[in-house]
Amino acid sequence: MAASQTDTPAARAIEIFAELVTSGDANPYPLYAQLHELGDAATAEPGPVIAFSHAAVSEVLRDPAYRVVDAARLDETWPGWREHPSCLAYSLLLSNSPEHERMRALVAGTFTPSRVGQLLANLTLLLFAGFETTTHLLGNGLRLILTTPEVERSLRAGIMPAQAFVAELLRYDPPVHLGTDRWRPEAGDLCGVPIPAGSRVMALLGAANRDPRTFAEPDRFDPARPDGASLLSFGAGPHYCLGAALARLEATVAFPLLLDGFPWLASGGEPVRRSGVGLRGYDTLPVTVS
Ligand code: HEM
């Protein structure tokens, strides 16, 4: 479906996506809810395909028909990319099978000198993938605690286990809202939406986590919900986050320590959100601890 047909659900989805990118960083969730009314995914040739339902995002992440933008693809689309040393094209996140499996086994096992180039790219990846993400998870959780007294009370009283709080926080207000770009070499179909060959595909992880067809009452923060296994905050499929267990552990340790260390914790002013929809968190989050 083309974007010029402004009355079609696909064209409306593309408009909502444009709004998300320009002004969705304050609160993307109402826009996600509007997207969910339009189906699973939308395509605006020659623009990207946007996946927003849980089913569509899950399929993009897991199905090998969708590939991340690796060095070979960059050679086609951005011939000068090798002049940018910070580019992560040799990293796990931007490689496809079979190189991806080899690197994943390498990172999980032993580092050998012949892999120094890949190692440097992966160390750079670890720095941003492992640091900013967890920082924003802690910030988003702290903001929820500061603005929701019953959550703070239940956590302090031990009625709400920190592990369950973190699991639901990861669904309700995750730090990563956009998966790494995918593209689909062959034409195909995503939850009934036709995908032209060579399409760029964007997976809205934050939207998938609020899909009412997967999570009952998705806008309610409910650490007791039984559907947590469907969480897509750490991705899915071959690129599933390598640090997921570490990130969960860090947050599960940090929140109780914070609450134990500071019995009187309150908001110290309006927080300032970081800009951009890909990563969701705060630049500043004032707190008083008197
Ligand atoms: C709350 C914290 C975190 C969140 C929400 C998060 C989220 C994600 C997501 C969504 C992906 C997959 C991206 C995609 O498929 O497009 C990913 C991949 C990755 N993450 Fe995390 N992450 C977190 C913490 C960490 C930490 C602590 C580390 C390491 C210390 C880490 C290392 C990685 C690596 C290496 C990959 C690439 C895996 C691959 O391509 O095979 N992440 N992460």
What does this structure look like?
The chain is of the alpha+beta class. It has a single domain (9-288), classed as Cytochrome p450. Helices cover 42% and strands 11% of the residues. A five-stranded mixed sheet has the order 1-2-7-4-3, sandwiched between helices. Strands 5-6 form a two-stranded antiparallel ribbon. The longest helix is centred in the middle third of the chain and has 32 residues, at 116-147. The radius of gyration is 20 Å and the shape is globular. The structure holds protoporphyrin IX containing FE. Residues 61, 92-93, 104, 125-126, 129-130, 133-134, 137, 174-176, 179-180, 205, 233-235, 239, 241-243, 246-247 line the site of protoporphyrin IX containing FE.
* Strand segment count: 11
Find the CATH superfamily: Cytochrome P450
What is the CATH top level name? Mainly Alpha
Count of spatially separate domains: 1
CATH architectural name: Orthogonal Bundle
The fraction of residues assigned to DSSP E strands is 5-15%
CATH topology grouping = Cytochrome p450
User: What compounds sit in this structure?
Assistant: protoporphyrin IX containing FE
Strand order, main sheet: write it out: 1-2-7-4-3
> Roughly how many Å is the radius of gyration?
20 Å
Portion of residues within helices: 40-55%
Question: Termini, distance in Å?
Answer: 57 Å
Write a brief structural summary.
This protein is an alpha+beta fold and 290 residues long. The chain contains ten helices and eleven strands.
